[in-house]
Specification:
Elements lengths: L2 E7 L3 H12 L6 E7 L5 E7 L2 H10 L6 E7 L14 E2 L5 E9 L2 H10 L11 H13 L5 H11 L2 E9 L6 E6 L4 E4 L3 E5 L11 E4 L5 E5 L2 E5 L5 E2 L4 E2 L15 H7 L1 H10 L6 H6 L7 E6 L1 H18 L3 E5 H4 L10 E7 L5 H12 L3 E6 L5 H5 L2 E4 L12 H20 L6 H9 L1 H9 L2 H9 L6 E6 L2 H17 L2 E6 L16 E5 L6 H12 L4 E6 L6 H4 L2 H5 L11 E5 L9 H18 L18
Parallel strand pairs: 16-17, 16-18, 18-19, 19-20, 21-22, 21-23, 23-24, 24-25
Antiparallel strand pairs: 1-4, 1-10, 2-3, 2-4, 5-6, 6-7, 7-8, 8-12, 9-10, 9-11, 11-15, 12-13, 13-14
The structure holds fructose -6-phosphate.
């Protein structure tokens, strides 16, 4: 959600900012802009509704340059997507330029006060008040430098903000501050960077500072200083990021999403390895016996990983688990205390609702354990302990590899807890099953053609249903979410047994139902559900390790998966068999098939897969 990049250094800032904005596209945006401190001693601002090529075309027509600039990709909250509402915003005198990520909750009051003092606004945004207020303070407190001004402004703002600010009176200084929105500072050999996320600066440096809450960074071309809101200097650690530039590039794939799906065997292997590496100390230190309840809270796919986790935890640990959407948890006055383990799952570690849920849980005394992908993120820093997934940068908006890595961390945590509680004797066997996942994932990924072929005939579907029972139901939720977010096809996930309580009325001739069947104990039950929908006209795609037609082994992908040559004589049921695995870990294999299915459906519809409409990768506002 909104991307910020700023640069001050020896090189022309414009191409650097544009490249950085391209790396931030994944966050979701509807307009983009850049402000350069130009030779005339004022800001050249170019901003444009639409995607980055539109901004680049404007810059090609009227080039600008300078050694200091800020850029922004905007995801509209206040005011429609338009050129004028795009960032950067400048004050009426063109003395201050600002880019903002977040929401200023008291912007109306500030705006009214400034209007009463004769300042006119040009946009409908909440963000413009920051530029106007900063310019007003700069004039009012003439002894202030830009850092003082930013501190004054930040003390007035309510809500959330990450800001990069330039002042015409300090042409060599960039100032950044954050509250409830991420910002990193990158240090390279030719200049300093401000960015919403590490991929934006990886081309230039992998050495970063993580800016903390209400910390201020003051950047010059060859130095950076940090301050608190009282302007007391802060010491911060320069950290080296292990992500490579390649990991943030498409690497020959048409879409990041496909690249990230394909990376999964390696990522699963790395995440499994982390149990004896970077995550080991945390895993060893956790004592499950001190808790009488587990609450898992997260959003979107991370929530779906939490639903999988509930089945795994309850079955192996025999401990009661609740799963709550973070947006609900934060306002429900949750019943948690010192004896509750609250698990937060988040790829970005910056999801506003998840952060709020974490803070709520901590304020009630609960112990918080986070499962996070982005090192240095707010959730990873504020949770009591954090287990990292080793997924690397995830660029496609629809999560794939980070979701899979979350599942693996959950399995390992659960098996460890179950052993601690004396609930299982087969710890080694279960770890061996988890360790077999990367190879089994690779087996599936070696046969994408069959899934692509099936997906190609589903492009015209108006609605697709996903059904499963028990842990298969948990992964049906993810299959459905993945499909709707990138293909824009309506879909719903149902527990198989629930169909007859209402949804079955929606089944008609040729409705597609994707049925998941990896849960051996309930195979007969899900097959009854399949029969119920087939007899009402549905076509079924049956996916699982319990079914025949294992395309990964029997070499009959075409026959097994072609919808008109299904395994039933009338062609109503097509089958994608999966490698055998302990049923509790089967979501990892089903997820990969479902990700590929969604991907190919969306690809056949010619959609913008990596940046689906209306969605942002990291939802940093409520
Ligand atoms: C779906 C997806 C989203 C995220 C959700 C939480 O493909 O990516 O549903 O899972 O926005 O994001 P994080 O994990 O960053 O907290």
């Amino acid at each position: 959600m909104c991307g910020i990049i700023g640069y001050v250094g020896e090189e022309n800032a414009v191409p650097i900012i544009i490249d950085g904005l391209k790396k931030l596209e994944y966050r979701g945006y509807d307009s983009a802009g850049i402000a350069v401190f130009g030779e005339g001693g004022f800001f050249d601002v170019v901003k444009q509704k639409g995607r980055l090529p539109a901004l680049e075309a404007r810059l090609a027509d009227a080039p600008i340059e300078g050694n200091m600039a800020i850029g922004h990709t905007r995801w509209a909250t206040h005011g429609e997507p338009s050129d004028i509402n795009s960032h950067p915003h400048v004050g009426s005198e063109n003395k201050i330029a600002v880019v903002h990520n977040g929401i200023i909750e008291n912007y109306k009051e500030i705006k009214e006060r400034l209007e009463q003092r004769g300042i006119s606004f040009v946009s409908q945004t909440d963000s413009e008040v920051i530029a106007q207020l900063a310019e007003y303070y700069l004039q009012k407190y003439s002894g202030d430098d830009l850092t003082d001004t930013v501190i004054r402004v930040a003390s007035v703002l309510e809500g959330s903000f990450a800001l990069a600010v330039m002042s015409a009176s300090e042409p060599d200084t960039l100032v950044a501050i954050r509250k409830d929105n991420p910002l990193i500072i990158g240090a390279s050999g030719h200049g300093m960077f401000i960015a919403s996320d590490v991929p934006a600066v990886l081309r230039h440096t992998n050495r970063v500072y993580y800016l903390g809450e209400k910390e201020i960074a003051v950047l010059k071309k060859d130095s950076v200083q940090f301050f608190g809101m009282d302007k007391a200097p802060l010491k911060k650690k320069l950290e080296t990021v292990s992500w490579s530039l390649d990991s943030a590039e498409k690497g020959g794939y048409e879409h990041f999403m496909l690249k990230e799906i394909m990376e999964q065997p390696a990522i699963l292997r790395e995440t499994i390895r982390s149990a004896s590496g970077s995550n080991k100390d945390i895993l060893d230190s956790l004592d499950i016996a001190r808790f009488d309840k587990i609450v898992i809270t997260a959003c979107g796919s991370a929530y779906n990983a939490g639903v999988v986790a509930r089945y795994v935890f309850e079955r192996l640990c025999r401990i009661s688990v609740e799963v709550e959407l973070a947006s609900e948890f934060r306002y429900k006055d949750a019943i948690v205390d010192e004896k509750t383990l609250v698990i937060l799952i988040s790829q970005s570690g910056e999801t506003a609702d998840t952060i709020a849920a974490m803070r709520e849980a901590k304020s009630k005394g609960a112990f918080t354990l986070a499962i996070v992908n982005v090192v240095g993120s707010t959730v990873s820093k504020e949770a009591d302990v954090c287990l990292f997934t080793a997924a690397g940068p995830e660029i496609a908006v629809a999560t794939t590899k980070a979701f899979s890595a979350q599942l693996v961390v959950i399995y390992m945590l659960t098996v460890r807890f179950a052993a601690q509680l004396g609930q299982i004797s087969e710890e080694a066997e279960l770890f061996a099953e988890i360790a077999s996942l990367p190879d089994k994932a690779a087996e599936i990924l070696a046969h994408t053609d069959a899934i692509a072929k099936y997906a190609s005939v589903c492009v015209g579907c108006k609605s697709i249903f996903f059904i499963g029972r028990n842990i298969d139901y948990a992964i049906a939720l993810e299959g459905s979410l993945k499909l709707k977010e990138i293909s824009y096809i309506h879909s719903e996930a149902y527990a198989g047994g629930e169909l007859k309580h209402g949804t079955i009325s929606l089944i008609e001739d040729n409705t597609l139902v994707v049925a998941l069947a990896s849960c051996e104990r309930l195979y007969g039950k899900i097959m009854s559900n399949v029969e119920q929908v087939v007899s009402r006209g549905a076509k079924v795609l049956l996916i699982g390790s319990c079914v025949g037609g294992d395309f990964a082994r029997d070499g009959e992908p075409d026959d097994a998966t072609a919808p008109d040559k299904g395994v039933t004589p009338d062609g109503k049921i097509a089958v994608i068999g999966l490698p055998k695995i302990h049923e509790l870990f089967s979501p990892s294999l089903s997820a990969i098939v479902l990700q590929l299915f969604s991907y190919y459906v969306a690809a056949n519809r010619g959609l913008d897969i990596d940046k689906p409409r209306n969605l942002a990768k990291s939802v940093t506002v409520e």
